[in-house]
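User: Please check token order:
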Amino acid sequence: MNPAYSVIFFTTASGAGYGLLTWLGVAVLFFDLPAHRWFGLAAFAVALTLITVGLLASTFHLGHPERAWRGLTQWRSSWLSREGVVAVATYIPAGLAAIGWVFLTNNDGIWAWLSAVAAVLAVVTVLCTAMIYQSLRAIPRWNTPWVMAGYLGLALASGALLFHFGVRTFGLGFAWSGWAAALLTIAAWAIKLAYWNSIDNAAPRATAETATGLGHLGKVRLFEAPHTGDNYLMREMGYKIARNHAKRLRTIALILGGAIPVVLAVVATQLPDVTAALVALLAVISAGAGLLVERWLFFAEAVHTISLYYGTDAA
């Protein structure tokens, strides 16, 4: 599949934003996170900005972005529409929780439950995003449970890294958040490794023989290209990446998105807040770069079954 940069940025940025919202809710409910006004302002501002910018970026891939709102009406049958509906709904409890936190310096009682509702809706939104891809049977490399697990794991891990950076920046302590971020990052990339292993070793679901129904006659090969020039299908569905390039990019993604953030997050737990905040920021930046590479690969390595009619042997 042709990697669309707007969608890559959307899934990466919004995933981190929803992950941060989730950890704010968890920390309030279970770890007695104080209602520090400036931390609350910064945390909600970062989370909601990442979410909003990501959602807006996703519309750039549409032919008519101004009509994007119409997609919200198809929630009964479309995961894309469900994602949009839940994404919009998340703003309500998140915004109200932010008001209580920032203006009233209160995150107890009803304000805590608003943070919890926002966290739940954030997780549901990420799951809906994953299902947009996982539900596509025409793209076998996406039609696997590893996709949902990977999207959720990486969102929670990137959100945990942001949360760790925030609490250390504002001197709130919570050094354990560095260990949590490290463990979540390890788990998320372990899921990603399992996904890569799965798609590398999966048997083809469709071949040129099954697609044409001519397998009983022997090996099917393309005699002549269906088109004399480039077309939309080949630009969007026929994108290919060399296996050696894919392996190299996987390694880069794993190092930038996984190994470096884990080491930095653990190191930060042993440092005073000011120094820890700088190290945690480096972990966030490295993780973001790794996630962009990972998400680019997610699209570039996908093979649409329509490509079987354009010379691809199997999908």
Observations:
- The radius of gyration is 22 Å.
